[in-house]
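Progress report, Aim 2. The chain analyzed during this reporting quarter is listed below.
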Amino acid sequence: MITRATTCTRDCPDACRILADVHDGRVTALRGDPDHPVTQGFLCHRTAQYLGRQYAADRVIRPLVRNGDGFEQVSWDVALDLIAQKMRQIRAESGPAAIFHYLSGGSLGLLQGVVGRFWQAFGPVTVKRGDICSGAGDAAQMLDFGVEDSNDIHDLLNSRCIVLWGKNPAVSGPHLMPILRQARARGCKVVLVDPVHHKTVGHCDAYVQVRPGGDFALAMAVARVLFERRLVSSAAAAQCDNLSGFQAMAQARSLQDWCRVADVSPSVAEGLAHDLANGPSNIQVGWGMGRRGIGGAIVRALDALCTLSGNLRVAGGGVSFYYKRRGAFDSAALHLADPPRTICEPLFGREVLAAADPPIRMVWVTAGNPVAMLPASDVTAQALRSREFVVVADSWMSDTARLAHVVLPAATLLETDDLVGAYGHHYLGSADAVVPPAGEARTDLQIVQALADRLGLAEVVAGSPEAWRQRLIAATIAPLGVGLDGLRSGYVRNPLAPKVLFADQDPRTPTGRVQLPTEAADDPADDPDHPLRLMSLSTEKSQSSQWVRPQAGPAECTVHPDAAAGIADGGRAWLRSAIGRIEVRVRCDLRQRCDVAIVPKGGSYLDGRAANALVRARLTDIGEGGALYDEGVRLEPMVED
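Predicted structure tokens for the chain:
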């Protein structure tokens, strides 16, 4: 047996360093690298159990072509020849914009950019814009600071207070938890603000169960206290633009009124204001904040609280929504041309169906499962079913793959060479295949290289993964002494990332000062016919739509007993929204609010478990994100139709 190391490339903030035991060409065990500063010797449940997917009996390991209602196995030559012929035909008849390449976050490896380089050169084809997960938060921090990054993750050990605002790291970023425990042991207070009672509550000193969507109002209540109690930093006037406008916005309503909207007592806002002012204090912003219709306004309000309370530019302070995961790499090496047309990701189905001049005739899906992961699943599925040609590269028969004309077997994270930057810390990683691809599976890079050979574009993507990785660091971190050998050690912190953001330079806004918002945001009014806010949340057993074990039976829906519509704990019911319904098994939980319904994220659409089948495709206030958490639902007893 030998042990090989790699870095997890899945859509997770932790980017863990994995040690894989390999015996006779087969991985027998996975564990976290104990020497990695963030991984610290353990893996999340999803990755620890990943071998179940790696060696699943239903894994796709040979190319498949649709034959009626099913699929038949074909050779790579047959599959690629068919695809190349279809691509040439569509480009000749309708132009390259009639082809839509949808790249999602199933792999965060930087070499996915080489895949995009092929599609740019072939057309350029239509690509996506916006971001289903973080678009609003991304746009908010770029408006406020001109850059989206965070203090070093271990700088939290300098904090006197850490506010987890809408964040559940025990499930969605478990490698933050040891740092939080260390901080608490040093006397740091940890506060959670979240409408949902979840696993992280037990690791906090205080818990604020705000109304779903009430985060902006709570932030304004805290801001009002900062102004009224003269807790605003003396440096705020020099650091910020629009200070008087922001103050006027915060004081446009009384403290009691803001707190009524947030459904918290004024003492809660008072406590949070003093916690922030008695810093250094850090605000950890959950990605769910960006998934509300007013998500941009919420994140901007939290950015403002950090700045006004004197916690920007100081050790132990900061407001963290994202880490600049591509900041160490030369993204310009992958860019050829701007696309002529884009499809807004949260509006995928609607925009594909409506596209004209030319219509979208072909869709190629890389590293994604849009049917399950995007809102309005019915419309997304309809859009794909009605296309002339759909190709999906994946390692399993996802909802999206089951609608394709060609399914290409993709290599897994244990079979791929790549580079990784994390969005939950500043450490860089090299992903190195620990075993060869199973069966006839190929990496996404190998797939487009073989296709490029057929289409006269071989030189655009030519090169080994090693050569492309060298190219991505040659102009950025290699001159600072960071090479691939160092990255393979797994312990290299991005040397371009500051330990304390803005400690040595001003925000990168046009004025060099923080841009405070001045326009208030109102959460959508509650729908009396659908009184529960649907919260489709990450679980310990799933990574987006990839589950540790096959799903069976209806999805579980967790509600307060008073919101269960008389349905007993464990009973089956319909969960209905304005656009559809799914069957659920009700779980009653007295710790939850009476206005939320919690369903696991990423359930299969074709198996009737997808919460996104209930969610309308609507955009956030800025950033073209998906307003996934604004949907109202209700429970109904099951009766015969």
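The first helix runs from residue 45 to 48. The two ends are 58 Å apart (CA to CA). These observations will guide the mutagenesis work planned for the next reporting period.
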